[in-house]
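Reopening: Response regulator still failing for me.
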Amino acid sequence: MAILSIFSGSYCHGEDVVEQVAEKLQYKILDKELLDATADRFKVSASDLVASLTGTSQFLKKFSHEREKNIAMLRLMLAELIQMDNLIVPGFYGHLIPRTIAHLLKVCLIANFDYRVGQTIKAEGLSEKQAQKAIHKDDQDKSKWTQFTNNSAPYSDRLYDITIPMNRTTIDGAVGLIFQHAQSDAVKATERSKKAADDFILAAKVRHTLAQAGHDEETYAEDGRVTIIINKYIVRLEKYERELKKIAEKVEGIKEINARTGRDYSPPSIMPLGELEMPSKILLVDDEKEFVQTLSERLLTRNLESSVVYDGEQALEHIKQDEPDVMVLDIRMPGIDGIEVLKRVKTEHPNVEVIILTGHGSEKEETIANELGAFAYLQKPINVDRLAQVMKAAYKKINDSAKS
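Support: Ran it again with your exact input. Result attached.
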């Protein structure tokens, strides 16, 4: 029978659906067991593994690769545990399983924003504003995860076989739909799909070995032939490929190993900011969620990683916890507007360089922004390479100030 991956937005009845599907199909839920087995085998804390799902600080990501190592451990443990069928892999973990395993059925439970707000208020007794904030935070964590694993938004249809709108479907209806699909011939385990699951173990072993050496690259395996897929720009590519293959050759069971660039590999039009002396920490602030998430994804292709928040209040709270080097800030937002955010940031965090990016600006607002200390004032739509150049200049200013 199938392996089910069920990923749910917050307050979309995910836990209820998972439990009822497991009972109806007599499936085992692979959640805490995966976490505990990984922690025990690799001698890491379960709390560190959980933190790695939503992301560690960017400083740790660049210099210690702690997140990549932890996720590689989880992936390898998961690859071994899913060799048995009749499993439900809930939440974040399902995004680690490759689509090459044909008896994997990927399900997404999601609902419109107003429905989720109503469910949050009902379940938690929160105000409408508090409920909206809680959902934004959860969506942000999920977005970071799926960008990391699949370079995609968390609820994108391309990640799933079935997407169920829970604002229009009862829990029983969702359970019945999943039950029906789980029993279809399309997701029955075959010798070929079981071989793909077995290949996943070898690919996960190689990726784990690479991660321990400080490299995070995709891996694919078939019949002992392993391919390492490089998606991030590397200056000396051939040398890097040789280095990766030399590390991977230590893994038992490899018959042949190759390295190549992937579809997301492209030389940046500017030198990656990651090569500057200080680690890059970027915060994007915009209430247009689709725009800012797309901008974050496009910056990532230029080796520029960013955090995303959707209003001024979230931005100010984020900065208190984790001060960025550069903030890209919209002006027209509900609640605390961009000008007020800029004023507070430059007063309380003067070292943060703020780039205003707006679609509704005026000369008066530009003058005010410049007087308050904005590094640049840009208009939407913006060419991503142009924005990257402005960020590069902002980092240069930061580094020059640090040296003086």
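The domain at 191-261 is CATH 3.30.1340 (Histidine-containing Protein; Chain: A;). If you still see a failure, please send the error message rather than a screenshot.
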